Amino acid sequence: MNPLIFTTILMTVLLGTMIVMMSSHWLMIWIGFEMNLLAIIPILMKKYNPRTMEASTKYFLTQATASMLLMMAIIINLMHSGQWTITKVFNPTASIIMTSALAMKLGLTPFHFWVPEVTQGISLTSGLILLTWQKLAPMSILYQISPSINLNILLTMAVLSILVGGWGGLNQTQLRKIMAYSSIAHMGWMTAVLVYSPTLTMLNMLIYIMMTLTMFMLFIQSSSTTTLSLSHTWNKTPLTTTLILITLLSMGGLPPLSGFMPKWMIIQELTKNSSIILPTLMAIMALLNLYFYMRLTYSTSLTMFPSTNNMKMKWQFETKQITLLPPLIVMSSLLLPLTPMLSILD
Amino acid sequence: MMTYIVFILSVIFVVSFVGFSSKPSPIYGGLVLVVSGGVGCGIIMNFGGSFLGLMVFLIYLGGMLVVFGYTTAMATEQYPEVWVSNTTVMGVFLLGLLMEVMLVLYVLKSEEVGVVFKFSGVGDWAIYDTGDSGVFSEEIMGVAALYSYGAWVVIVTGWSLLVGVLVILEVTRGD
Question: Are B100 and A62 in contact (CB under 8 A)?
Fold first, then answer.
């Protein structure tokens, strides 16, 4: 793609999300979502093969449907309250429709079906943008309408997302699908605590974005999209096998790594609000996630699978230099002692 | 009939939307889009927005739909699908028509309708005031406000349109 056009389109993706996050008028938010959607389509389609085109089409269709639902909720809210500001959604119908629309944009169950298919069909860098940046805008709107969200619907979607994210990722060997199911599960954790304490949603979003960025960059550096290809990284850069181990265990939510922080805080907040069964279920279902992360670490860093001699040399172009990788790795594994600092997110 | 003209025009609006949502060939979709654009213009004009109705006719129908019609005519197939040619299309069209007819009967028969919002019968659809506040018409004031207080909206929509063109060119470029 022409570099000037690519820069313009990438800046428009950023501009769309910024407009969503800083507008106080519902119409501008909707315009921001549409701008974001329109501009990310050519980024998803960077390579012109039928797989990327199919993935971009699926993404466009689901997100356009979600935008239409959001517009209907905005108009119902306008009809019942007579004003366009975001602070409170005055009508329960509008609130439910808005929650469903934003869940479709995030990829929460039962609207999660597009996430693995779209993530699998696009390149690793596009998948990175899809699973990290594109979650910011809907989550910011959920944060802003969180006082008026129907608790039953949101909690149902959250718990089902954690279940589907864990269960669905079990049978996958393609790394992009694994990251997609991990994204579904993390979105479930984030929205479960949204009504109780939106600060923790933002904390979880921050840590999740850092860990997902790290994982994707490690995949990009070893140019691997399947588990088999990832298991050959011991040959090219042995250090990244250890880093993959640490980051994956952090994503699974194991102490003393930083991925434990959001889960710990969320469970604490939920139990403070006298719901015991729910966080127990969520913690148990997070074990499913941990299982397929551990399977990745097993094949990558803990064992060397028997393979023929000519498969042992992993061929790739010249070594990629990813400048942001070391700080990201440090942040996604060592942030747990900084937990008292989460008060800055208020 | 003139009292309920907005209601009648809205029904025709929905029926034309059903007409193109049942997915005949795009050329016939463009045909019902013309009808729905004209009817939408009528609805806007009944609320006093004569300028905006003219905009719909000129820009939407006379600009965008003409371009759409030309490009569809270039890309059309030998036997385009009409509503009666394919059983699926006809079935969906009839289903949409049936649902609209049932909704209209529900609105006409019952005193108070409460689907998502409450309105009491057809009387709520009649227009009592055209929104003139004093000397100026409300809709011309809205257009003026768009270019003064709403400058940011104009910038954002202009940028979206530009990026829309860039995106379309990029997507259809192929390799």
Answer: no
**A286 lies in some domain:** yes
Instruction: With H, G, I as helix, E, B as strand and everything else as coil, classify residue B114.
Output: strand
pLDDT in tens, B63-75: 999 999 999 999 8
pLDDT of residue A285: 94
Find the mean pLDDT for residues A196-221.
93
ipTM of this predicted structure: 0.86
The pLDDT tens digits for B140-151 are 888 888 899 889
| Residues A248, A250: Cα–Cα separation, whole Å | 5
Could you say which DSSP state residue A317 is in?
S
Residue A314 in tokens: 């992993």
Cα B32 from Cα B14, distance rounded (Å): 11
Query: What CATH architecture applies to the domain B2-130?
Result: Up-down Bundle (1.20)
Establish if A5 belongs to a structural domain.
Answer: no
What pTM value is reported for the model? Answer: 0.90
Could you give the CA distance from residue A103 to residue A159 in angstroms, rounded to a whole number? 13
Q: Where are the domains of chain B?
A: 2-130, 132-174
* Closest residue of chain B to A13, computed from CA coordinates: B163
**Residues in chain A, overall count:** 346
**Residues B40, B12: contact at Cβ < 8 Å?**
no
Least confident of A157-171, A313-327, B85-99, B107-121: B107-121
CB pairs under 8 A between A and B: 48
Mean pLDDT across chain A:
91
Among the residues of chain A, which ranges form H helices? 3-22, 26-44, 50-81, 92-106, 114-121, 124-132, 136-144, 151-168, 175-192, 198-221, 227-230, 233-236, 238-252, 260-272, 277-297, 309-312, 325-334
Q: Is 90 exceeded by the pLDDT of residue A331?
A: no
Taking CB atoms and an 8 Å limit, are B167 and A93 in contact across chains? no
Cα separation, A185 vs B62, whole angstroms = 49
State the total domains in chain A: 1
Question: Per DSSP, what are the bridge partners of residue B136?
Answer: B133
What pLDDT score does A57 carry?
A: 95
B160 interface with A at CB cutoff 8 Å = yes
Tokens of A193: 């605590």
Quickly tell me which residue has 């500001």 as its tokens.
A85
Domain assignment of residue A280, given as a range: 88-344
Asked if B160 and A38 come within 8 Å (Cβ–Cβ), the reply is yes
Query: Virtual CA dihedral for A72, A77, A80, A82, nearest 10 degrees?
Result: -110
Is B71 at the interface with chain A, CB within 8 A?
A: no
